[in-house]
Amino acid sequence: MIYEASMIAVILFVAFVVLVLGLSFYFAGKTKSSSDYFAAGGSVHWAVNGIAFAGDYLSAASFLGICGMIAYSGYDGFLYSIGYLAGWIVALFLVAEPMKRLGKFTFTDALDYKFNSRAIQLTAAISTLIVSIFYLIPQMVGAGVLVTPLLGLEHHWGVIIVGVIVIFIVATAGMTSTTYVQFLKGGLLIIFSTVLAFYIFNNGLNLNPSTENQEYHEYISLSPIMEDGKVISVDGYNVATQIEVKGHNIVKLEKEGINRWFNIVEEEGTTKLSEMLSITTTEEGKLYNGEVKENKKFYQVGHMSKIILDGEEVSETGPLGPMKFLSTIGASELVRFAKIKFTDGDNKIVAWYQNVTSGADMLKPGLKFKIGEGSNFWTKLNFVSLMLALFLGTASLPHILIRYYTVPSQRDARKSTILAIAAIGGFYILTLFMGLGSAIGGVLDPESSNMSAPLLAKAFGVGIFSIISAIAFATILGTVSGLIVASSGAIAHDFIDQYLGKNLTDGAKVKAGKIAALRVGVIAIILGISFKGMNVSFLVGWAFAVAASANLPAILMLLFWKKTTAKGIAWSIVTGITAALGIILTSPTMWDRYGLDKADAPHMLDNPAIISVTLALLVLIFVSLATQKDNEGLEDVA
Amino acid sequence: MDHGPAVKLGVDHAQKKKSRLGVKLFIVYSIVYTIFVAIGIIDYTIMGKIVLGDQNLAIVYGLGLIILAVVMGVIYNAICTKYENELNKEEK
User: Fold this and answer.
1) Residue A361 CB-half CA count within 13 A
2) What is the pLDDT of residue B92?
3) Interface probe, candidates A92, A392, A561, chain B, greatest B C-beta count within 10 A
4) Is A92 in Cβ contact with B22 (below 8 Å)?
5) In sequence order, which residues have a C-beta less than 8 Å from that of residue B31 and are 6 or more positions away?
6) Nearest-CB residue to A371 (from B44, B66, B69)
7) Which of A362, A503, A531, B1 has its CB surrounded by the most CB atoms within 10 Å?
8) Domain A7-25+44-205+374-631 falls in which CATH fold?
């Protein structure tokens, strides 16, 4: 899509960055000890911590990724919202209070509480780093996605800007500044997502989603003269080529020297040519719908094709309440744009054809996850594995777990978790409306699902777009800060101080933490540039799977099985990481990423949790049973 | 060794009771969540059936899972606070 920067958006973005940097300066003077740096002195109010939890957790994946996935794949995107929220049940009921009771700065502290084992210190530190880096990738990709429409800069500049700001936030005041940045961002995100939802309800549904701020392209339908399935002629166009791609019969038409692609469809018994969108890569460069980018002929997509309100077909509904909005979509029809790739001579073409989808299908699972028609054992296993990873992943994320150390007591840890669940749950309900609003609002960028929610805001006005984009950017700042604090604690506290036994002074530990933050930040920048183009929520699904596999069996068995030993925990972490990474790196999605055919991948599992979590658990049980002597004389934490 | 909380915590006599309650509530939620996933893989078309007002099962169940988490969290906190107030009275 062709984006243009908005001055208001730039001003708001700069104002927010100045505010965040000012906060970091302010707290830098108050951050003296390692407890201040890694755990905000353990003195944060539970309500602030609860919203900061939301700020930490509602990452680019939640705001950009889920809304985009709902816009493109309907209810299947909402499954992520459900799974992410359900994961907080594990955190609240099983993990919150014990984590507060047993740990100091990092989740390794809690795992190692009764053992003082170098194996746990090393493996848990490595696990924290790997999980944090996996989680960092989608955040940085999201930063790159946002910076283009917001500031008119290229993807890699977004990644670099976020990286530099976050390194500054973390390197100045660690967890203290991170907490308040997350609090600010969490609160703003929830408030303005609610405002956006009100815009959606007030706008209702319309066959032509043009607004006063944005004209929607009217997709044309041509009547061809056909003979034996071939297009012979079309009024006003020259027929250039007709080919079949993956079951779609498509035709290239030429008019005034410009080539455009059309899909041959049957509409009420007659053959029609339905307009497609295309990007043609030639030796000279890219053509958007047959023209250069500057001509702005590559349009936004997503609209209703039939609206049924209370049993009657209408062209618009006017304002609707939340439940009426859902039920009206459920009874109606909308047009999604599906992607196909093919070649035309020496040119590579990526094209999008109109795919009429019933609202009923949009509001139930099955458009993305193949669990119904066309499903097989692997597709169903993928679905179960993803839902398991989302459920178990939250309570295993190091950057979430360290937030329990910032409050004064176990009761505060519990109360802040409940506030977080309420805030996050409320936001996830809004994702359903923001995603569906984007799907039918004529705002989608066919090239990237991640921009759906900000682009929807843009259709309602540059003011709300600027605010939403600045908050989305802040969303990334908050989450990345948390991840870098977690990584920095793993390196400075778990690895250097504990594992290597350096016994750093308080000041030296803070200094080591700051250097670690700088290095992890640079790695995050490089990875964010490398993974451009992937859906951020999909990537976060992987981070959850690695976290659940590496950390959750160890945490839960330590808390609830007295026979757990240090060796059992260490081997479980190693097994979880190895199995999860092994399955991910040989998955069909990665095969595609390597430029190979997905069908040639060694297995068909995209999400590893169902296998890697089970393996990690079994290894913990077997190794612990075999090393029971190690536990003699140790106190019980269960 | 350098573990344990960053701030000094008092003794919590309610710890075991809270832990048992947490496990019970976790099991209840896990069952509800598992049924949701199971419907998806056994017969996902059931999710499309209208069950409440004009809403299908997928919407009702999905929103229900989110709201249930909040409600169970509030109940859990209320009971835990009651345990703490009763069992940690002497400590106070």
Assistant:
1) 18
2) 47
3) A92
4) yes
5) none
6) B44
7) A362
8) Sodium/glucose cotransporter (1.20.1730)
Residues of chain A with pLDDT under 50: none
Give tens-digit pLDDT for A234-249.
Answer: 999 999 999 998 888 9
Measured between beta carbons, which residues in chain A are less than 8 angstroms from residue B49?
none
Position A219: which residue type?
Y
Question: Alpha helix locations (H) across B1-92?
Answer: 15-42, 57-87
The full DSSP string for A411-424 is HHHHHHHHHHHHHH
- Reference A353, options A283, A419, A418, A273; nearest CA is A273
Q: What's residue A112's pLDDT?
A: 86
HSE on the CB side for A1, CA within 13 Å? 22
CA dihedral A135, A363, B39, A89 (to 10 degrees): 40
**Cα A331 → chain centroid:** 29
- Residue A420 has a pLDDT of 94
The pair of three-digit structure tokens given for residue A549, joined into one six-digit string: 């596999």
Task: Give the tokens for residue A170.
Answer: 């973390």
**Rounded Cα distance, A545 and A530, in Å:** 21
Cβ atoms of A48 and A40 closer than 8 Å: no
Contact (Cβ atoms closer than 8 angstroms) between residue A565 and residue A621: no
DSSP 3-state assignment of A270? strand
Separation CA A228–CA A191 (nearest Å): 58
Burial (0-12, 13-18, 19+ Cβ within 10 Å), A602? exposed
Structure tokens at A361: 């299908």
Cα–Cα distance measured from residue A510 to residue A151, given in angstroms and rounded to the nearest whole number: 35
Using a CB-CB cut-off of 8 Å, the residues of chain A touching B58 are 75, 363-365
Q: Would you kindly state where each structural domain of chain B is located, as residue ranges?
A: 16-86
3-class DSSP assignment, residue A192: helix
Phi, psi of A349 (to 5 degrees): -120, 135
Q: Does B48 touch chain A (CB under 8 A)?
A: yes
Q: What is the pLDDT of residues B20-66, one digit of tens each?
A: 999 999 999 999 999 999 999 998 889 999 999 899 999 999 999 99
Question: For residues A214 and A460, what is the distance between their CA atoms, to the nearest angstrom?
Answer: 8
Identity of residue A33: S
Q: Which residues, numbered 58 to 97 in chain A, qualify as contacts with chain B under a Cβ-Cβ cut-off of 8 Å?
A: 75, 78-79, 81-82, 85-86, 88-90, 92-94, 97
Contact A578, A619 (CB under 8 A): no
Do the Cβ atoms of B77 and A418 come within 8 Å? yes
**Amino acid found at A564:** T
- For chain B, give the longest Cα–Cα distance: 60
* B-interface mutation test, from A115, A407, A411, A499, most B Cβ less than 10 A away: A411
Closest chain A CA to residue B73:
A418
Residue type, A524: A
Contact list in A for residue B47 (CB cut-off 8 A) is 75, 364-365
Domain with CATH 1.20.1730.10 in chain A: 7-25+44-205+374-631
CA distance B90 to chain A (A): 17
